[in-house]
Amino acid sequence: MGIVIDRIVLREIRMPLVHFFETSFGRTYERAMVLVEVRSEGLSGWGEVTAGENPFYNEEWTESAWRIVRDYAGPRVLNYELASAEDVDKRTAHIRGHNMARGGLEAAVWDLQARRNGRPLHQEIGGGARREIPCGVSIGIQDTVDDLLRKIETEINDGYQRIKIKIKPGWDVDVIREVRKRFPSIKLMGDANSAYTLADADRLKALDEFYLMMIEQPLAHDEIIDHVELQAKLQTPICLDECIRSAHQAAQAIRMGACRIINIKLGRVGGFGEAKRVHDVCQKANVPVWCGGMLEAGIGRAHNIALATLPNFVLPGDVSASKRYWKRDIIKPWVETTPRGTIEIRDDPGFGYEIDHEFLESITARKEELS
User: Fold this and answer.
1) Catalytic annotation on 181?
2) What three-state secondary structure class fits 304?
């Protein structure tokens, strides 16, 4: 029997970060996120749209995501019999771009399907290759190098297995040199968020001496060809993020030699269906993947945990404890890490955690129902 969604509830919530998070795009102090709840036969499934507050990471932002789900994607699945959650992608594929909006809706239907079947989400999507996932942290650009070194030390003491630091021109080679002096043996990577061009190849090549795990997305968000040329000049592996929005683009990048690692973000590729296809393409090509983060609240974080149980997620991802970002999360219990720097997999139906409805209502800025 298929799934018929009889109601979709959109919520915009606002959550201040414990500490500002800075990338080459700018600083974020508060997240404004769109949550999608889908209802069918008395059950609810939940998804989180991972778009930022501004169209800087990609073309999406909070307001666009709200409009896309409300006016375009939502009506295409409402009161339509879906054979399974995989049909959401097919029903909304006519929408050009806006993968995060579509992916938030699709993730909610996957959660609903898992709950209806009485299974944990990681099993529903075909995951479960491991009982705990290795965790890394992403550290934004800091006011000073000393601030950065202190934050790294804190995260290492908390057991995290990999440190990612944001870089940009002027906050790169000299900064990483200081980090390596202080922490010579940690797993370390740099994330540029498209802050460089091919003219900066020599500067990026200077990072080879620091034996980084990878440099993430050094060049433009839509530039695969220049990454081919850059990767040929570097010993350090390039990891593509913003460039990869589909399994087809992943296959192209791998075939051309544009990267040696791929970061899979659930929202960026449009949900679990496409994320699994990207995963499979990479696994077949022996290209490792890891799960990237977008400053998610608890629902999106729980979905990332489920995704990261697929077998080719062999590198520590950006999935970390709730307390790193929030004074209070919207799920119970909060996501926690072990002293080993891992997150243990929960087997409750759906994404594995309860919604903190009281807190959720208190931070809801607007709410709208489609029925």
Assistant:
1) no
2) helix
User: Which pLDDT band, with edges at 50, 70 and 90, does 270 fall under?
Assistant: very high
d(CA 95, CA 89): 10
Read out DSSP for 160-172?
Answer: -SEEEEE-BTTBS
Residues 6 or more apart whose Cβ sits within 8 Å of residue 152: 139, 163, 165, 179, 182, 183, 186
Q: How far is CA 93 from CA 1, 3, 4, 46, 320, in A?
A: 23, 19, 19, 20, 31
Residue spans per domain, the chain:
3-118+357-370, 124-344
Q: What does the alpha-carbon distance between residue 171 and residue 155 come to, in Å, rounded to a whole number? A: 20
Q: Length of the chain in residues, anyone? A: 371
State the alpha helices, DSSP H only, in the chain: 62-68, 74-77, 87-92, 99-116, 121-124, 145-157, 173-182, 201-205, 225-233, 247-256, 266-269, 272-284, 298-307, 357-362
* 143, 146, 152, 156: CA torsion to nearest 10: -160
This prediction's pTM: 0.95
Is 233 catalytic? The answer is no
Mean pLDDT score across all residues of the chain: 96
Q: Which of 164, 166, 168, 276 is catalytic?
A: 166
Looking at residue 27, its pLDDT comes to: 82
Q: Identify the CATH homologous superfamily for domain 124-344.
A: Enolase-like C-terminal domain (3.20.20.120)
Residue with tokens 């945990």: 305
CATH architecture of the domain with residue range 3-118+357-370: 2-Layer Sandwich (3.30)
- Are residues 32 and 82 in contact, defined by beta-carbon separation less than 8 angstroms? no
Tens digit of each residue's pLDDT (9 = 90 or more) over 287-326: 999 999 999 999 999 999 999 999 999 999 999 999 999 9
Token pair 């594995």 is at which residue? 352
Position of tokens 């404004």?
A: 32
Helical pair 99-116 and 272-284, crossing angle rounded to 10 deg: 100
pLDDT at position 217: 98
Which residue in the list 164, 168, 265, 276 is annotated as catalytic?
265
Distances (CA, A) of 337 to 24, 137, 146, 263, 368: 28, 11, 26, 21, 34
Q: How many CA atoms lie within 13 A of 308 on its CB side?
A: 30
